[in-house]
Amino acid sequence: MIKKLFLLFIFFAPFTSFFAISSWLRIPVVINQVLFVFLVLGVFIHGKVSRKWILKEDLLLISLLFVVWLSFLFGFKEQRSFNHSLAYTNSIVFYFFVSKYVIQFLNIKAIEVLAVIYKSFLLCSLIIIIDFIGINYFDFSLRRIYAPVVDGKISNMNYFIRGEMLSVAGVAEEPGHMANFYNIYFGLSLCYIYQKKYVKKYKWLIGLFILSQIALFSSAGIALSIFATILIFIINKIEKFSITKIQLAWIVGLLMVFFLGLVILLSFKSETEFKQINSIIDKITFSEEANKVTKVSSSGQRLYQWTRALSNFVKHPVLGNGPGYGVNEDTEGYLSVYFTILSDVGLFAFLFFVSFQTILLIKVIRLKRNVRSFVLFSLITSFLHLIIIADFYQAPLWILFVLIQLIYKENKLPNT
């Protein structure tokens, strides 16, 4: 029963809007909580406690969680702050550590988890494509059936207008979130069919991916998938020149930092030196100027929120202003996981989280080449997507973290 619940949690992890009961009781949360109860009962009944399942890098997440609650105690301490502290706790304790413990407790292999992710990816693709065709050509909507409440709590939108078409959000709240989950599950699905040697399925899977990305019409989702593909190609080419794994990790890390810096720089310079470049990027990514009345989450609005985040960070750099402060001050929030952690919870929490990500990046770089390429796609797209979305607590991201550790354990190169 525990294993079935765990795999069910993996399958429905992207379903943050479909089948949601409330803003807090989304289907992955419900399944995960039931899983935890059954796990505790299973451990108690069998009297079996797994040991040595916490890795060194996991201590960074434990430290992060400790700082979150310290920040809450010394922050603005309102109900919203407590709720956000619980969200951090749920992500780290239940999504990450409970998943790790279940895998250790039941000796679940990576290929079993990847198989479920592959099936989930196929279902998500089917829903995205059917919903896109239905709403644009037949006045039929899956979202209105399975995610009917549009109040800013369960779902942020029904459909976005993109030119003369409507873009869909799949099973998530909006296209950007769905694109992030979709990119994560796409890379892991490729990893699955590679390990199962389903060579003929590559073209079908890639075809589904392209069609679904068009239906989602997420600028970040499309751009990051292209960027990740090019970067992985470059990495594989560079590797032939006998570069060490550590050097390769540094190259990838620096490229990601460069990409982040470029995004911020172009935003800050949008009205001066980079005006022409920014206008081209706006056309490619379907961006627009920020609306001061509606505060639409465009590139201009992100700049405003990032500037606000840095301004608030300077006021309380060590422990931040308290979990949820950015959203409490402005309902838009900081529109970035990294800026949210930095400003809300402080510098130490930010460093703990980024250090944990860096260790995972190094582990992926040390994987066997073919497996590495697929996992690296999921890692690059998700890590960079966190720059422009503020959802720290989404299950697919934490499932990726757990899987990277498991895949590394099973597939790492000798002497690494």
TrEMBL record:
The keyword Ligase applies. Keywords: Ligase, Membrane, Transmembrane, Transmembrane helix. It is found in: Membrane. This is O-antigen ligase family protein. It comes from the Bacteria. It is a multi-pass membrane protein. Its main location: membrane. The chain crosses the membrane at residues 30-47, 59-76, 82-103, 115-138, 204-236, 248-268, 337-362, 374-407. It holds the Pfam family Wzy_C. InterPro entries: O-antigen_ligase-rel_domated, WaaL-like. It comes from Mariniflexile gromovii.
